[in-house]
Amino acid sequence: MPLFLGLGAIASYFENVILHWFHSYEYTPGILNIRYYDLSLGAYLSQVYYVSSVAFFIAAFQLRFGWTLLFSAMFVGIEYGFLALGVYKLIWWHPAFTGVALPVYFWIAKKWWILLLQGSSRFIRWFTLVGTNYVIYADLESIPFFSGHYHFTSGWFQDLARDTVVVLIIYTTVRAAITATVCFYRLHWSILGMVTAILWIGYLVSMQLHILTFKYLWSFYVFSAYDIVILFICCKFNLLLLNNARDKTTLRSWFQP
C-alpha cells in the first residue's frame, strides 16, 4: 500500500507541473460541470490510479523491459484513442513524450520496490510517507473540493478553478511533508498535537487573508480533521516501513499477493 500510494504521488507531481503550471494538454471527460475541475479529475484518476497501478504491478513482479515497453505502448495507444474520441486535446504535449517518460517511471518503481524491501534508505522511507500522505489527503479532499465547498484565491491565475487547484496542490504537498516528517522521527505525541494545531492556525490565517474560503463552517472542521486522520495513518505506515528495516521479510509479506 505505501509503495502504491507513493507511486501515485510521483505520477501526480509530474502531472501537476506539466498540466497545471505549463498547460500541456486538456482533458474533457464530461464528468463535472466546471471545465477545469473536469480536467483535473480526469488527470488525477489517470495518473494516481491507472498509471500507478501498472507501475505497481511491474515493480511487484519485477517484470522485464519488454513488459515495460508493452505497457508504455498501451498507454500511448490510449492517448491516441482519447484524441480520436475528442476527450483529450494536446497543447504542447505529444504521445511520444509519454512513450519516453513511462519506461523511466516504471524503472523508478522497480528500484523503489527494491529499496523498500531492503530498508536501507531513510530518504526513501521518508519520501514514501510524503507520497502516501499526499494521495490520501487528495482523496479525502476530492469530494468537498469538486462539490465546491471551498476555494482558494491567490491571484496567480484568472481562472478561479485553476487558482484553487494549484494552491490546493501546494497546501496538500506541504501538509503531507510536515506530517510525514513528524511521523518519520517518531516525535512525542505532544509535538504531534502541536504540529496539528499549527496547521489549523495556518488555515485560520489563510481564511483571514481571504486566500481560503469555505462555503460552510462544517467544511472547515472536516478539512481540519483530515490532519488527524493522516497523522494516524502515517504513523502506522512509518512503523510498517521501520519494521521492515529491521526485518526485511515483513514488507515482502505485506506487498506480495
From TrEMBL:
Keywords: Membrane, Transmembrane, Transmembrane helix. The chain crosses the membrane at residues 40-60, 67-85, 91-108, 123-145, 165-185, 192-212, 218-242. It comes from the Bacteria. This is Uncharacterized protein.
